[in-house]
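Lab meeting notes turned into a lecture example. A postdoc, R.K., suggested we walk through two folding results consecutively so the class can see how the record format repeats. The first protein's sequence and structure tokens come next.
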Amino acid sequence: MANSSTFHYGYVIVICCCLIMGVIIGLVMSTAGIFYTPVSTDLGVSKGNFGLYMTFVYACSFLMLSVAGKMMDKYSVRWLLTVCSGVVGLVYLAMSQFTSVWHFYMAGAVIGIALAFLLYLSYPVLINRWFNTRVGFFIGLCSAASGIGGILFNPFGGYLIETYGWRTTYLIFGILILAVATPLLGILLRNHPSDKGIKPFGEITETADIQKTGMDYAVAIKSPVFYALLVFAFFMIAVSTLNLFLPTYVTSVGFSVEQSALVASAIMLGVTIGKVALGSINDKSSRAGVLTSTGLGILGFVFLLMGREGMAWMTIGGFLFGWAYAGVTVETALLVRTVFGTKDYSKIFSNISIALALGGAIMAGAWGYLADFLNFRIILTIGIVLLVISGIIAFYALNTHQKKLVIT
């Protein structure tokens, strides 16, 4: 029976997931770039050496994800996420006192372990537990909160750095996580609808029944489509990490730093709108979601390549690229649900997410090294090729799933 006649606690879970993505991920990941110049300058190291701490973040998430998926099934998600939130907040307090770059590397390792739960698994696992309908929309909405956090906290953090310095900014960010996110998660989060004596939100359809049974974890990890989705996730995150270098591309063709910042804002707008829209599109058609994400991303790269002709091309290109960026989290999470169901979703998705973390760890640095040897136009063209391959892989996975349903 649908639970739409009265307020459903699933909406509170959505708020908690938005809190995780908007506040914690918004402060930790979406604003990381504003610290590169002031911190590296103050410590007397290159931006590249300081930025390596993000590689530690991705690498430790990669190492932790498989274990994290099993822990999400075995232990209380409520307290796992609350503790991880507290740990990140405390690390940010500590970062305000760091005096050497290796301190940041250690902090990155701890943050990476916590983000395996907070960034990669929190909202996909919880939304799948609490909702039978509009899953795509809510996953997109929660994921989009990180972009909204970036839009709000980047200028706020920039002001704090200019006015009080980077150390005070890290301190304030840590306090925000500890004072806002951590206690609210501890108070409001619940593990399953049964904890509140209710059923998941929405009508249980025939399709939902198929998804609830789904594929066993042991069977899923031996299937060809599982490895295909690993490649899909790796290529999509590889494309998204180009975001770190697009402002440099914009300035390299003759535009100002202020104009490159405008393109960066257009990308964030595309990411935020794209995540919500892709979620809704996927609720109607997974194929349409894949086509929209990869197709608009390809078009975005084409516009960026034409950017020499004017700032309008660059800005529109950045906005459209943001839709491919949005597809990294939204499309990956929903493809896993569609193809494998929800029976062992936490374990299967955590293993697929390993490719996201590994891809981030490798490509965040690899694109920089490639930029030293290759023209940016070649790099953007590589991005187009990766999106084309990703789209083909996604359609292969969906076709495989459809054949199994027909056989069943």
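The second example is placed directly after the first for contrast:
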Amino acid sequence: MNERLQRILLVVGFVLIVGLLAFGLYWVFFRPQPTGPVVTPPVTGKPGTLPGTGQAPPPGTVTSVTPGLPTPGGVPTQVPTLPTGVPSVQRTAVLSEARTTNISMSKGGQLRGYNPNDGKFYRIGADGQAVPLSNQVFFNVDQVAWANGSDKAVLEYPDGSNIYYDFATDKQVTLPKHWEDFNFAPQDDRIVAKSIGNNEDNRFLVVANPDGTNAKAVEPLGNNHDKVHSSWSPNNQMIAYSFTGEPMGYDRQQILLLGQNRENFKGLVVEGRGFIPEWSPSGKNLLYSVYSSDNGYIPSIWVSGAQGESVNANRRNLQLNTWADKCAWQNENVLICGVPTQLGRGAGLQRELFENTPDEIYKIDLAAGTKVNLGAPAGNAAVKEMTITADGSAALFTDATTGRLVRFNLQ
């Protein structure tokens, strides 16, 4: 055998050995492990679309939820009986064509809102007539924390500036720039906020007079300041909630309810993430929304007891896919909610993709155990903020698509 042939055989042998070693490594460490058979469900929608939440019942359809209030012993409140056969478009009226944000109903039955186009705050009557609360102009207001029974508010700006303003007296006070996330006490005599200092040792949940005086640190926040949110309950027990409860797994968590005297309240257990709460008028109960992997990360609304030993009492899923801040309490027993007509998988993770999805309005009677689809408001409106008139006859909300203020009659 000549030298040239030997070299060729050596090269071929080397290549074969390297190839066998590479295949052996792949087979031992990198080959896919066998699994059970994969069943691909049939595609029912158009190509490129995500699976949705299913078909809603026709308007006027009455379906059931588990009856009973979260806290026992409550006396059911009488609510108007819904007339049958009233088209949803006839229930709808546009109160204001002007862009309206940060709406709130005072205890006196006055609707307040902000017009970002002209920078003024208005009181809006049942006929849609808007009367300025003040001639003062406030451009580029980001967040508004309204007082409950008086025309006072804390205004937050994108640059971190904060102003307390009394519209009845035109009194203005500048609040500390390192304060954020404001909320008023039920009697409007105090506010709660987060004081975010430059270092972790100087970050606290604080309560103070609305003008910022007599401030008192309630809870240290440290590096958990982004996990605490101000929310003063109507019964004056809670001032905030926190995502710092005991670990309970990926799709379950414990929400801590914080009082102004560092009380040791029971933690609220919720089945999911993305917790958004709405207190009932008494503060005894809580509506909230969460999403989880069990339902494709689509938000669903739940109700639970939320006072003292009744925290977690009668906690249950209301079987409607929406966010809690698209709902409002008509009274202690009845909820009114905007429910998107279609939500795709992952809506809870990417809410901004579904903000303009048209809604249908549902009425949920917790005492009777019923929910009624009242139909879709005219104009393909999407609920952004909702409140209920003092007499309970209508829901008022801003349309996420147009910014208009819309009235939807509930009777």
